Amino acid sequence: MNEIIIAILRSGTPLIYVTLAGVIAQRAGVWNLGLEGLMIIGACATIVGIMLTNSILAAILIAVFICVLASVLLWFVIDRLKANPIIAGLGLTGLGVGGTALAVQSIFGSQASVTAPFGLPKLGPAFGAYGVLSISVAAMPFVVFGMWVLLRRTRFGLRLAACGEHPFAARSVGANPSRMRLVALSIGGVLCAIGGAELAAGSLQFFAQGMTAGRGFMAFAAVIFGASHPVGATFAALFFAVVGALGIRAQLMFGDKIPHDLLQALPYLATVFGVWLSGKLRGGAKAASSFAELKDQ
Amino acid sequence: MKDNLIAVVRSLIFVGLALILCALVFQFAGYNALTMLWAVADGAFLRSGAIEQSLRWALPLFITAVGVGISFRAGFFNIGAQGQFYVGAICAAFAAEAFKGGPAFLVIPALLISGMLGGALWALWPGLLRLRSGTDEVITTLMGNFMAGLLLVYVTSGPLKDPSGSGQQASSRPLDAAYRISDSLGLSPTIIAIAVAVGVLMWLLVNRTAFGVLASLAGRNGTMVEWQGARLWKLGLSSFLISGALAGLAGTIEFMGPNGRIASGFLPAHGFTAILIALVANLSVVGTAAAAVFFGGLASAALYLPIMAGLPAAAIDIINAAIALFITARSKLVDKVLRLGGRPS
């Protein structure tokens, strides 16, 4: 049983950090499809940082810096150049996946993966079987709680939601939607850096090309599934991690009876179902953006 | 006409901006940016035989991109081209198993049609969810891409598995040589004819039929079209189905032409590139053809770079991504510059 919980926490924690990044962007009115790219940049920068500086703290600071920089670029393109957030986000993802592959090749020569000598600090034997988990797993519930307080119980969080839902009204009470989006995306950059660091240096200690393998998109799905509420989205991300872990279990237990690849599709199917259901309950969800509408602006 | 010209110039400006960003990334990653961009141009268009290779990649991309353009025009953000491309190829592969041994002149059209049906099917459910219950199509089609990718893994390592295949990448049994529509170089009269037919038909559909006009209007103002008596959901669903069918057709061409089989995770960037092509072309059919040649060139350069120039293929992904980042941008500065060229405002 412990084993399963550890597996779920290991695969779930990076997803949850990135999901929270998606939540804060979503509340600011930005559909952040760049999460995948930010996460892989965070993962790559952490491992490369460890190799270059030999210090985990410095490595994480480097990852945070680069992820925030990339988020600011996304903000600039979406907010200042009025680009379509979905296409720009997909572009950022491509830039992250391609850029990290290029960086690893140019720094370490042609190798598919880079192994670091050490990773994030572990909890240690005081926590029994759970001692193998990294400190960022332990920090995760507090971050989720902090995010909930920030988004639901502070002046900033409520203004952010106002900016996301109705920028015009928010402006009329003195909020600056453009600056709010910048802040939200930057906080998201920090969270993605931590999520990427946990993915690459939490239980593993290496970076491989394309190692996020769609986790950023899954996080985005969790944001939508969790109705962009920090706690709801966290549970959605956790649910995806559970399905993933159970899929591997089922593979071990039932062998060929259930095709593993099809079980892996469950989270995506669940997201479609969840979005459909939330649309039904709210009486017809409005579409996020229409391309033609943007074109006419 | 002037508006079209401005759209072209605008696209070119942002593509140029993207290339500058790429040059910075290359330089930052430790490569000489000029060498890299020159190698890309060389691999795409300049070296001998490059144009043929670029066309080989451009034709399927063109077919998918025209479909993407149709659904964007109607105001539906169908980003599921990749999934529709895969499901089309999968359906054609199953059909190829079923019709094995039939005469080629019957089997080849049958395979093409089943591929189109497969792609349309994978666009049907997001379309129905969107038009019947308002479920956002961005999410459903994005999820559909992942599901189709997993379906492809399952099919190529399960029902269609090639037992003699190497362990490296699961792939289906090869298509009977009699049903192939091109050799592995991927440029044949059949494929060119299909692409031209698609281009002409879609141009007529968009510019010369009531459907095309109404769909474009629906994209701008759905309520108005509804008030004028058109059935919005019919228009919408048709545009979903057309874009799905064309993506499926492209998948089938890749299967029956250059690849001759389907492999798990083959051409993972096809759908994304097609979306870019449609956007760079500002959704016009003629523009899509020109943009497809450009991006086809990039795709062929991706194969050329690591082998001939010793540079990483990821460079091409970065160029594509940077173009994606900027292509929908509407900068006031650029608009101002263009207006100086005499745009009536």
Automatic annotation (TrEMBL), chain A:
Lipid bilayer topology: Multi-pass membrane protein
Keyword presence, Cell membrane: yes
Transmembrane segments: 6-25, 30-50, 56-78, 85-108, 128-151, 182-207, 219-248
Main location: membrane
Keywords: Cell membrane, Membrane, Transmembrane, Transmembrane helix
GO cellular component: plasma membrane
Subcellular location: Cell membrane
GO molecular function: transmembrane transporter activity
Pfam families cross-referenced by the UniProt entry: BPD_transp_2
InterPro entries per record: ABC_transp_permease
Listed name of the protein: ABC transporter permease
Organism the protein comes from: Ensifer oleiphilus
Lineage of producing organism: Bacteria, Pseudomonadati, Pseudomonadota, Alphaproteobacteria, Hyphomicrobiales
Automatic annotation (TrEMBL), chain B:
Organism superkingdom: Bacteria
Single GO molecular function: transmembrane transporter activity
Keywords: Cell membrane, Membrane, Transmembrane, Transmembrane helix
Any Pfam family matching the protein: BPD_transp_2
GO cellular component: plasma membrane
Its membrane topology: Multi-pass membrane protein
Location(s) in or outside the cell: Cell membrane
Transmembrane segments: 12-34, 54-76, 83-99, 105-125, 137-156, 191-211, 232-253, 273-295, 302-327
InterPro entries in alphabetical order: ABC_transp_permease
Entry annotated with the keyword DNA repair: no
Flavoprotein among keywords: no
Protein name: ABC transporter permease
